[in-house]
Each structure stands twice: as structure tokens, then as C-alpha cells.
């Protein structure tokens, strides 16, 4: 069988679908996607589990499918989390260097990092991520590794992503109930950005917007580090709901109309056209105005981008985003969405594509699977770090044995 | 711990009196009656003879009339207050000849809630500075006790120079599933004693950067507020860092959030002779970083007995919009008894059983007066169906309910 350490599984319990992606790290450290399982999700609203029993069944189906496709047994997963309760903010840790020669030691670095992690979270919140940004030595920016430098004041910026403890625990417990171990929880937006952005884009500054069914997650990278994260609990479900409300059709019908006739911008050429909804024997039940449909949809999508733009304006991050905006998630499939987003965000907008990952073509091309693929990528990065450490230990051991042999 | 002679001298010239009021107060005062607080005079005031008999206090005042039939106040603070007023001169004479009076009481029951404000007034009339340390009952003890405690707290605030209040509910963060009731009360008491110890050290130890008692009183008095306090200790080379971490995790400060909300903060540090300025600086820098409104009063003291320990007492006063219902007090009479001084800590089983009995009484009382809760409901003004999201948590962003279709909120017509 496979060596377990090479297999990494990302599990996203989304609002519209549960998706499990199996990745394999080959000898060179490259990631290959070998399996994909998905199931329609019925127990999730706005990115959060509301019906445990249903969600459990869906997760089980997705996992089984992924296991069959990849021909592996899944034991551990990297679990994606999202929801309107998740927030991100930056925190700075300060630490005076007190050694006599003012040289910054590794202890100082550890101190300043723990210092920055001590933040006043609301009582019922828990950390999802604490991501190191940059060090400052005596106020000088952009120090990546301050050990050995001289200075009297060491500072570090941290990006802290936190969320409601119980709500995050809900999905973790659900997964554990299926006899699966959760390696780590990962914020969905962060996973998507990992799958989409290359080092250059991160350095130049990019905004990744993942429009899912339940939530819209976004992450801002600038200067190579995560600068901002956010969640708006509005997504594709809201569009369907708006359509159902406005066109007075059932939700399932609205969903279908959205996929078939939807557009982010009202199509001038289709003005005045109607769609007739027929029943099974061909009688027309209702006619729907295409312009209305697209108008309702356009307003909702526009609003999502406006909310993100407002948030970025508050954090003064617009000027950092030179690589533009990258869209993913099911929402990225909406025709002409990039065209709509461009004037609102005042930046080039494009649809995202996974890079530096090989494997099943059908999985890599779909914008819906990017988050789950990103979870696998997150796992591979974590594992590489761990392997790096263990190989260092092994290296020391080797040197020692060789030394002993020689003597 | 502190047997340093100069400290004792200052304590004596200042003559501090610690008065335990009510069952909980007497127990707490007894627990304080040890070497560390030598130099203080202890007094116990209660309506229950048993709890007083077991007390080690120098001065004991037994409040008793025929009205009570030896059964205590029965959880009714009005009775406690009435009998304390009756014997007001006795209480007053017990408070005489002291410059600072600490009142220790557990609010919520009959004795603690009723008597402590009378004692505070009596002490005030003798010209002493009065500082009250009180606990508020657990939420599970019922509405009645919570109301009584709240009323009594307001009364205390109006008479005492300063009130430091410890809501017992906060100790829930310190205990786990298996902590017994007795242990929980002990922890609550322990926290209160730590607070008293912090102030005590502030007043008695020779300090480098002095905090005057007036500063302290001004801090906690003018705010008409709940003052949160914390006492933390750490030792070893990384003690300053440890101190900051402990403060930021302290349950009584809501994991450091109380610092952000506080209007004024008093920090008193006590360390051994090797306390460095860098350490003082580091602690203060971190604390002030977490405060939004930086009115910080700081003091530092040296105590040889601290070895390599560093202790920090922190009082954070925050302005609450609590209404001050100062009740009118009418002076009456009280009795006083003195016994020989005894030293040493002793746990007092009879008084803790009294405490429990008080709880039972209070619970009975509550069920009688239980009122149906009035809930303010929301009127469905704009009836827009949220369809799929009807039952999920609404997504409110800047006052807008994003679950309602955008075109409805923006009023875009569909013809």
C-alpha cells in the first residue's frame, strides 16, 4: 500500500457540495492530485453546519468516492473552515532586546512571536491561523530573519485569523465522528489563495475572492505575506434566493435559471426576451423576463464586490494590489463576472487557475475545487516543513555515525 | 512572608483594620489573619454566634436581638441592616483609632449585604479611609441574591471610599467540571484575599515610586464602577514576561479585555532588590499597549523577602452606566465584644456550612418570588421573506440584512 505520509487529503464541507481531494507528494516534493470525491451538501448554510446528521452522510459519501478514485484509505484530512464569524486582523508584537551586545538571538525572536500571538480575542473565539508577516528591527522594515542582527527593539507583525470556537468545533467534531483525524483546520480563503497564487503574485500583491455558495471569502496578499482576510456570509445561495423571491419561482427552479441564463451584467441584446417555464407535459406555467433575472443577479454580485471594496478601502490596501484580483469558487462561473468586478475594484480581474500542481485535469480546471486543492497544498507545505525538520535531525545523526565510524 | 520590621512600623503608624462582615466575610478575614497581615487588627461582625465563636478575630461583634431568635438574618438584608443600625455605636467604637478600614464581605446574603454598608458608614464617621472588598454571588444562586448584592453594592459605593468587587461568576473560568462547591468558594475567597494582599502591600511596604492611598481611592471611587483587580506573581529570569502573560490571561480581567475597557489603571509592582528598570519598563509598556485610555498610576516597591519573585497588583476601573441607588441609612445601635488575639489561619467549617445554609434559604426565597420574565420582542415591520435563510443566523452588515434580496433593499423596480 501507499506510504501514508505521502498522501494528503483536503476536505471542504461547503454549502453546496462536500468535496474531498486526495493529493500525493512524489519524491521530488511535487504535488499530484490523484483523487476527488464530492457529494451534494444538504446540512450546511452559509458555510456552517446546521444539520449534523445530513452533513455527516454527505461527508462520508465524498470521502468514500475520493478513496475509491485514488485507491487509498483516508485517515487524516486538512479541514477547511469558513463562516461569517471568521475575522482577520493584524497585530504587532514588541520585544526589547536586552542582551548586553544588542545582538538578536533566537530566543528574542521566539519571544516577540509569542508576544504578537497574545491578542485580545473575544471570549468565545479561537485562533484559526497566526501568520507571521515581517520583522522590524529598530523600526526598520522588511527584515525576514533578524537573528544575528544588532538592534535594541525587535517587532513583528502577525496576521491573526480567528473565529467562533464552538462553530469551528462543530465541523471538526463532525469529521472526527467519521473516524477521521483532522490534521489542521485551514481558512478556506487562505487555501484558495495558496492554490491560485504563485510567489510573484504574492510579492506584487493580489486579492483572491472565492465566491462560494454560502460565503464569499477573500484574502489579500502583499509583499509576499497575508495582509488581510475576510468573510462575507453571502454567496451563490443568495443569488438563487433572490431570484426565487423576485421571479416568484421555487428555489430549485431559480437555481436552474441562474445556471442557464444568469449573467453578472444585464445583457442588452436579451432585453425583452422571456423564458417560459414548462411543466412535464409541455404546458407553459410561467414566463420569466430575462432582463429581470439578470438585473436581480447583477445587483447581488455587484453588492458583494462593493462590500469587499469598502473593506479594502478601510484597510488602505488598494495601492498594494498590483497583480490584480483573482476570482474562484462556483461564483466565478457567472458569465461576465470579471467585467462587472473590474470597475468596482478598479483593478484587472481574472479567473483563477491552479498552478504548480499536476493531476486529474477535470479537477484542476474547475473553480469550485480550488479550495479543496488549496487545502491539499497547505498540507503539503506543512508536511514539507515537518520533513525538513526531521531530515535535519537525520542529517545530524548521519554525521555523528560517520564521525564515529571514522574514529 | 513579610516580617520586615520597617514594614510593620509603617503598618502600625497607619493602623489598618480588617473587618469581616457576615459568614463569608468572617471566614475570609480569618484566612487573612496570618503572619503576612501582621500589624493589622482584625474584627468580625456577624449575626451568627457559631461563626463568630470559631473566628480568630481580635474584636468580635455579635449582632443579636430577640427578633432574630438566634437564627441569623434569614437571608434578608433589611433585617441585617436594621440590627446593625440598632447597634451602630458599638460598630463605630470598634472602628475607632484606625486610619484605614478594610471591609471584607460576601454580598447576596442577609448579613453581608445588610451590615457592610452600615459598617462602612460607621468607619467613615470615625475619620478612617474605608475600602470594601466584596464578592457578588454566582448567577446560579438566583435573582434575589443578585439583586440584593447589587443594591448593597450601590449602597457601599455611596459610603465607602472605594469598593472592589469580585463577581463570583468570573471564577467559573478558573474551575473545571470536577471542582467541588467548597473548593469553588475557596478559590473565590482566595482571589479576594489576593486583592486585599495587593492593596496591603501597597500601603505597608516601603516603596520607590509611591502610590498614595488617596490616589487609590480616587481611582476606584470617582468611577462609580466595578473595579476589576488582579494579583499575579512570577519568578525566575523571565518573570517580567511571565507577569505580562499572566495578566493578559487573568480570568478576572476577562483575559486582558478589562484593560482595554478601563478608564484608569493602577499598577503596583513589588520585587526583590534585583528588580531592574528594564523589567518595570517591559511590564508597563505591555500593559499600556493594551489600554485605550491611558490613565495609569504606577508604583514600585522593594521587598527583600521576595527573593527573586516579582508580584504585580493591578486594579482596572471602568466606567459603567450603573445607576446609583444610594439608600438612606438611619443610625441605630450595636453590641461589641472583645477577645484575646489569636494568630494562625484556620478553616472554619461552621461558617462555611452557614454560607451553604444561606444559599438554601435564598433559593427557597427566590422560588416564592419568581416572576415570569418579560421579553421584548421585535415587531416584523418590513415583511420580506428571507426564503432559504429564514431560519439561519441573519447576515447583518452595517445594519443591513444582507439576506434580503439586494434589489429589494435598493428599491430597484422590476416592471
Write the topology of this structure.
The complex is a heterodimer of chains A (407) and B (415).
Chain A: E1 7-13, E2 17-25, E3 31-40, E4 44-45, E5 48-49, H1 52-70, E6 76-81, E7 87-96, H2 106-117, E8 125-137, E9 140-143, E10 153-164, H3 165-176, E11 181-187, H4 188-196, H5 199-204, E12 206-211, E13 216-222, E14 225-232, H6 236-247, H7 251-261, E15 274-278, E16 284-289, H8 290-314, E17 325-328, H9 337-345, E18 349-351, E19 357-359, H10 361-365, H11 370-406
Parallel strand pairs in A: 1-6, 3-19, 6-11, 12-17, 17-18
Antiparallel strand pairs in A: 1-2, 2-3, 4-5, 7-10, 8-9, 8-10, 12-13, 13-14, 15-16
Helix pairs in contact in A: 1-3, 4-11, 6-7, 6-8, 8-9
Chain B: H1 5-14, E1 16-21, H2 22-32, E2 40-46, H3 49-54, E3 59-62, H4 77-86, H5 88-95, E4 100-106, H6 111-125, E5 129-136, H7 143-159, E6 162-167, H8 181-204, E7 207-209, H9 213-221, E8 226-235, H10 239-249, H11 257-261, E9 264-271, H12 277-290, E10 295-302, E11 309-318, E12 337-338, H13 349-369, E13 396-397, E14 400-401, H14 406-410
Parallel strand pairs in B: 1-2, 1-4, 2-3, 4-5, 5-6, 9-10
Antiparallel strand pairs in B: 3-12, 7-10, 8-11, 9-11, 13-14
Helix pairs in contact in B: 2-6, 2-8, 2-13, 4-6, 5-6, 6-7, 10-12
Question: How would you explain this protein's 3D organization?
Answer:
The complex is a heterodimer of chains A (about 400) and B (about 425). Chain A has about 400 residues and is an alpha/beta fold. The model of chain A has no long low-confidence stretch (mean pLDDT about 90). Among the domains of chain A are: about 85-160, Dna Ligase, domain 1, CATH 3.30.1490; about 205-350, Nucleotidyltransferase, domain 5. Chain A has 11 helices and 19 strands. In chain A, helix 9 (about 335-345) links the parallel strand 17 and strand 18 (about 350). In chain A, helix 1 (about 50-70) crosses helix 3 (about 165-175). In chain A, the strands form 5 sheets. In chain A, strands 11-6-1-2-3-19 form a 6-stranded mixed beta sheet, with helices on both faces. Chain A has a 5-stranded mixed beta sheet with strand order 14-13-12-17-18, with helices on both faces. The radius of gyration of chain A is 24 Å and the shape is globular. The longest helix of chain A has about 35 residues, at about 370-405. By secondary structure, chain B is α/β, with parallel strands linked by helices. Chain B folds into 3 domains: about 1-210 and about 320-370, Rossmann fold (3-Layer(aba) Sandwich), CATH 3.40.50; about 225-320, 60s Ribosomal Protein L30, Chain: A; about 380-415, no CATH class. Chain B has helices spanning about 5-15, 20-30, 50-55, 75-85, 90-95, 110-125, 145-160, 180-205, 215-220, 240-250, 255-260, 275-290, 350-370, 405-410; strands at about 15-20, 40-45, 60, 100-105, 130-135, 160-165, 205-210, 225-235, 265-270, 295-300, 310-320, 335-340, 395, 400. Chain B has a 7-stranded mixed beta sheet, with helices on both faces. In chain B, helix 5 crosses helix 6 and helix 10 (about 240-250) runs parallel beside helix 12 (about 275-290). The longest helix of chain B has 24 residues, at about 180-205. Chain B is globular and about 85 Å long. The relative contact order of chain B is 0.15. Mean pLDDT of chain B is about 70; it is low at about 1-10 and about 320-375. The interface between A and B is medium-sized, with 34 and 35 residues.
